[in-house]
Design a protein that fits this description.
It comes from Glutamicibacter bergerei. This is Lipoprotein. The chain has 152 residues and is mainly beta. The chain is built from two helices and eleven strands. The chain has helices spanning 3-17, 120-125, and strands at residues 21-23, 30-32, 39-40, 54-62, 68-71, 77-82, 87-88, 95-98, 101-104, 108-116, 134-145. The strands form two sheets. The chain has a five-stranded mixed barrel. Strands 7-8-9 form a three-stranded antiparallel β-sheet, with no helix packed on it. It starts with a helix and ends in a 7-residue tail after the last strand.
Length: 152
């Protein structure tokens, strides 16, 4: 077993043993415990210091590893990196609460922030997500269309 492989196993065991969230040394990203998972960054919603100005729209979905993604109109998915104040909804249809908004899988979102290519410790921190696309750092919720029936 190589040293890098052993390090990944230790990081993975730290993540799976954590009760509330996990992170990898050297990364500012963490995963909430349980499923679904939210990737949480070290930023706040409406972060005044943010210079990211990209906008994205699409459906809130889950990756193969049960992490929240945004599937755009072109069917490309982006792993969503939520602000520190994001919390998973405790029961019912999968979703999370951000800034007094309850967001559920299947709903349409318009968000602003920025695209990010993950590498090194950040990529390792979210490896459990099994995401195939790039990442999008969420800085603001522009619009959110609720489903009357989340099963739709």
């Amino acid at each position: 077993m190589t040293r890098a492989h052993a390090g990944r196993l230790v990081a993975l065991s730290l993540c799976t043993a954590a009760l509330s969230s996990c992170s990898v040394p050297g990364s500012e990203l963490g995963l909430t415990a349980g499923e679904p998972r939210a990737v949480v960054g070290a930023h706040s919603l409406h972060d005044d210091g943010a210079s990211m100005t990209a906008e994205a729209t699409g459906e809130l979905t889950l990756s193969a590893g049960q992490c929240f993604e945004l599937r755009g109109p072109n069917s490309r998915s982006a792993l969503l990196i939520w602000p520190t104040e994001a919390h998973l909804l405790p029961d019912g249809w999968p979703g999370l609460q951000v800034d007094d908004e309850e967001l559920r899988v299947g709903e349409q979102l318009s968000i602003s922030g920025g695209y990010l290519q993950l590498s090194g410790a950040d990529a390792e921190a979210v490896a459990q997500c099994q995401s195939t696309g790039e990442a999008f750092v969420v800085h603001d919720l522009s619009q959110h269309t609720k489903n009357s029936d989340p099963a739709q």
